[in-house]
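Entry:
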Amino acid sequence: MSENILFDVLQAVVLFFLNPLLLGALVIAVALGYFRVKRERRSFKVRLLPGLTELKRLLSESWLYALVLSLVISGAGLMVDPGWLVLFSAVAFVGLVSFYYKIASPIYVVATAFFALYFIGQYAGAFTFRGWSPGQVDLLGELAVTIPVIAGLLLVVEGLLIRRHAAKYASPYLMETNRGLQAAAFKVKRLWLLPIVFVIPGDMISAYVPYWPQFTLGGNAFSFLPIPLVIGFSQVARSMYPDVLFPRIGRAVGWTGIIVICVGLTAMWLPILGWTALLIGVSGRALISIVVSIRERQGAFMVAPHTAGVVIAGILPDSPGEKMGLVPGECIRSVNGLQVNNEKELYDAIQVNAAHCRLQVIDRNGEVRLMQQVIYRHDHHRLGLLVVR
């Protein structure tokens, strides 16, 4: 008996790690890093972060949110339909392999799976699979509350991830302005993996995996099912600095999630409001993306060539430039007392005193400040700066 239980547990673990969504996220995270490095080297001849950064951060930044979300979903008893969960995973996989992560917000995945389940029930209600039938799913019952609330919770988590982590990995690259000059824009294309434990009602799982953990509450049976959830985010910043723009986007997404949760809870009294909550979430998230994208395309470049010096587009980690507190958008006016107007002059001026570097910098607010840093032999010979040419 114990051997059978151990075998089923191991089988469940293996099936989780063989989930196409999980495997796809791992592969695509590597691909995102590869393409980012190529883009940065094409613009600056050097990459900002290692190519495996996206893979290393795939779970490290999101596991705590996944744990809290699983506890909330399980503790509140937010049960979902197994058919909806299958559709949810399928839609998420399509969004993942599309590489277009403006549509990889969880609200789009949740809502698409919900309304797809409705249409399947309308036009293929007689279909059955291992005892499950879409015609038996009541989308105006408990699911009208639980799915919108889960969607709102996922939106809140997405907002927190964008707010806290998106700006850290903004990748600079050069673009040509309307005047034919080279200016810098910043692109973020991220994936976050969240292993979420969903609650499945009934004994459908245990009927096929006999020793799968099953619980009863008030005479109702239910099981816990772990599913890898992927949140994608993609945005280009050029008229606002990434550390200003992305936290704003995160706050807007988070508040949209709170609104969805509040409207979804009212579906306990009027189920159709659960459908309304999903539509509000989809419309609100799409509006945020559209408004931000239009403003960023039409606005002027914040990191553009300056007549009074060399403008910083990026700083390599652990470099002298980072230790000096330099940030993208600042302009280096002089180095070691020599005025600089391009990358070559910047490099030549640094060599005047290779052991000690003194900079006169114009910050983002137009104020001048003086900075200095001792440079050691192992430090980057150009202070670790990526500059607008």
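Residues 272-298 form the longest helix (27 residues).
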